[in-house]
């Protein structure tokens, strides 16, 4: 039997394992992370960072959107059933970690009483709603979009759990003018 017959399934399996456990390419949709990321940008997401627990306050992360998943599947009788869950993903900046206290007042974000100053935030857009102060629980993370006036984030859906964090955005791949630039 020719060697390529085994190479094709091996390559598919390797690609699936890499995508599931190591990294994935994600296309950004929407304007919630402007000016850091724009609609249509393609980024490299490290899934190892999330699995190892090396995500930090200020990182740009990919998360499952709370309460937005769809189940799809099919059944061939009662003995054989396949069910898949498709999650809506969103890209946000990690603002606060478990145990932190978050407060938003006068369009400024405070974590543990100190104002946060993340680069790339669209300071021209304002958001009027105050939030907190709220102390995060043992498995709660607070995320915000950099375009604070146009982002649906933890202010609207609440803190997210650790299992909802898919990975950390590490590099820009598209547009090519920003190819391999680090995302901060």
Give a verbal description of the structure.
Helices cover 15% and strands 39% of the residues. With 184 residues, it is of the alpha+beta class. It has one domain: Umud Fragment, subunit A, CATH 2.10.109. The chain has a 6-stranded antiparallel beta sheet with strand order 1-2-10-3-4-9. The longest helix has 18 residues, at 4-21. The chain is globular. The relative contact order is 0.22.
SSE topology:
Elements lengths: L3 H18 L1 E5 L14 E5 H6 L7 E16 L5 E16 L4 E5 L2 E4 L2 E2 L15 E5 L6 E3 L9 H4 L7 E10 L10
Antiparallel strand pairs: 1-2, 2-10, 3-4, 3-10, 4-9, 5-6, 5-8, 6-7
Write a concise synopsis of the structure shown.
This protein is α+β, with helices and mostly antiparallel strands. Helices cover 15% and strands 39% of the residues. A hairpin with a 2-residue loop joins strand 5 (101-105) and strand 6.
Rg from alpha-carbon coordinates: 19 Å
Contiguous low-pLDDT stretches (5 residues minimum) are none
DSSP strand count? 10
Helix-and-strand structural type: alpha+beta
Q: How would you write the strand order of the largest sheet?
A: 1-2-10-3-4-9
CATH homology superfamily: Umud Fragment, subunit A
CATH fold-level label: Umud Fragment, subunit A
Could you say what the CATH architecture is?
Answer: Ribbon
Q: What is the quaternary state of this protein?
A: single chain
* Number of separate domains: 1
